[in-house]
Amino acid sequence: MAFGIKREELVRWKLDVEEGKIAFLTHYWVDERFVGCSTVTKVGCSDLEKLEQWGRQYGLKPEWMDLRNNYPHFDLFGEHQVRILTEENMLHQLHKFKKDNA
């Protein structure tokens, strides 16, 4: 379940993904399979080759892409989330959430 974002943020992310941009969206997230993680960053792009190449530079495997809907994306959490957001100069996405979000 996703929460903690504004509708405008979600709409902007979806538009960017549809336009073939690499788009980032971080939100609160609860999933019992990932104990200790309270946020997820979705990195999406409708250009699957571009998304795959982007992911490879961070050691993400193509089979990890979520292709179940119209917004293909990688889900980043934990250490990968912090490391990649830092390298992408997007760490501010985590700063709007509580300090123990990694």
From TrEMBL:
Domain of life: Bacteria
Protein name (record): YneQ
Organism field: Planococcus koreensis
